[in-house]
Specification:
InterPro entries: GxxExxY. By secondary structure, this protein is an alpha+beta fold. The protein contains four helices and five strands; from the N terminus they run αααβββαββ. The protein has a five-stranded mixed sheet, with helices on both faces. α2 crosses α3.
Length: 130
């Protein structure tokens, strides 16, 4: 069985490349929605399948208890959460991991456009159930 970080590395690398292109052109200082719109254009130009602001159901003990919109769902397998803040902290990381667990997705990403250098984290769901 292929480890998740290798299975999705090509796809996540492409997404990171798109994010770098957006950050190179726009820099930092815009609201998150501006980066979200620009990243959608870049993903499209790179032929990467995605859904933007995808409504993901949240379940608790098999019961639907609500939903949360993920900024991007890439090719139906990788969630991407965007931020436009000066620096990422543990709360942002925990939030993104919680979403992965709630969505039961194996891999996710947290991307921050808000500082002078693009920040990104690849995330693995250790509780993933195939």
């Amino acid at each position: 069985m292929i480890k998740a970080e290798y299975k999705y590395s090509e796809l996540t690398s492409k997404v990171i490349g798109c994010a770098f292109e957006v950050h190179k052109i726009l820099g930092s200082g815009f609201q998150e929605v501006i980066y979200q719109r620009a990243l959608a254009i870049e993903l499209e130009e790179c032929s990467i399948g995605f859904a933007r602001e995808y409504d993901m159901p949240i379940f608790f003990k098999g019961r639907h208890i609500g939903s949360r919109r993920v900024d991007f769902l890439i090719e139906n397998v990788v969630s991407v959460e965007l931020k436009a803040i000066t620096t990422l902290n543990d709360d942002h990381l925990a939030q993104a991991i919680n979403y992965l667990e709630a969505y039961n997705l194996e891999v996710g990403m947290l991307i921050n456009f808000g500082c002078s250098s693009l920040q990104f984290k690849r995330l693995l769901n250790k509780k993933f159930r195939p």
